[in-house]
Amino acid sequence: MTAPVGTVMRRLGRAIDGLDEPAVEKIAKDQQEDPFQVLIATMLSAQTRDAVTAAASARLFRAARTPKAMAALTVARIQELIYPVSFYRNKAVHVKETCRQILARFGGRVPSTLDELLTLPGVGRKTANLVLILAHASRENICVDTHVHRIANRLGWVRTRTPEETEHALYRATHRRWWPIINLYLVTWGQNVCRPVYPLCPQCVLVDICPKLGVTRVGKQVR
Ligand code: SF4
C-alpha cells in the first residue's frame, strides 16, 4: 500500500499551518531568500537542532553578511560564532573555504546550478537542492534530508536505503508540482508528528491512508 501523494500533500499543507517552520526556511524568508545566507545557514543546519541553527546563523550573520566579510574572519572566530552547532570545527573550515571559493571562482555570487554548488566544500546534495529551491526559486529540485527520507519510506512512496536514493526515487514517484515543497511539508511533519522514534500516528492527519511501513512502535504524547 502507498499513501496517495496528492492527498498527503494537500492534508499536510493544511496541517502544518501554524506549526514551527524549519530554521532554514525561516531564515530564507527573513532574509528575502538571500542565496548566501540560505547556503551558510543550510551548511550549519546539518545534524543540528533548529533553535541552535537559528541562533548560530544570527550570530554569524551579525559578524559578516557577505562572502567577502565572512572570508575575512578567521576559522577560530567562525568556530566561536557558530558553536554549539554539530561539527562546528569542520563547518567553520568549510564556511571559510566556501566563501573564498565563491569570491575566487564565482565573482562573489552563490552559484545557481547543482553541479557548481556541489563543487563547494561541505556542500552536499541536500544543501545544494535547498539553496536552489529557497534562494533560486527552482521548481526542478527535491531536497531530501533524514526526515524526508524516513517519511517517504513510511508512506510507501519509495523503498530506499539512503537520502540520495530517495531523492532520485521521488522524482519518479511524485508529480513535479510537489517537488519544491516536499521538504518543507515533510520536515515540518517529521519534527512535530512523524518523529524518528515513536511517531504520533494516532494523532496524525494521514493515519487512515499511511501504510506506516517500518513503524513498530508509536508514541502517545498529546500535542
Ligand atoms: S506519523 Fe504515522 S501515520 Fe503519520 S505519516 Fe508518520 S508513520 Fe504515517
Structural notes for this entry:
There is one protein chain. This protein has 223 residues and is mainly α. Helix content is 56%, strand content 0%. The protein contains twelve helices and no strands. The chain has helices at 5-15, 23-30, 35-45, 50-63, 67-71, 75-82, 88-106, 114-117, 125-134, 146-154, 163-173, 179-192. Helix 3 (35-45) crosses helix 4 and helix 10 (146-154) packs across helix 11 (163-173). It starts with a helix and ends in a 31-residue tail after the last helix. Bound molecules: iron/sulfur cluster. The site of iron/sulfur cluster has 13 residues, from helix 10.
Alpha plus pi helix count: 12
Task: Say how many strands there are.
Answer: 0
Bound ligands, each once: iron/sulfur cluster
Q: What is the overall silhouette?
A: globular
Radius of gyration: 18 Å
As a percent range, the share of strand residues is under 5%
Structural class: mainly alpha
* Overall helicity: 55-70%
Low-confidence segments: none
SSE ordering: HHHHHHHHHHHH
Largest sheet: none
The average pLDDT score comes to 95
First-last Cα distance:
28 Å
Topology:
Layout: H1 5-15, H2 23-30, H3 35-45, H4 50-63, H5 67-71, H6 75-82, H7 88-106, H8 114-117, H9 125-134, H10 146-154, H11 163-173, H12 179-192
Bound molecules: iron/sulfur cluster.
In short:
The chain is mostly helical and 223 residues long.
Features:
223 residues, mainly alpha, 12 helices, 0% strand, binds iron/sulfur cluster
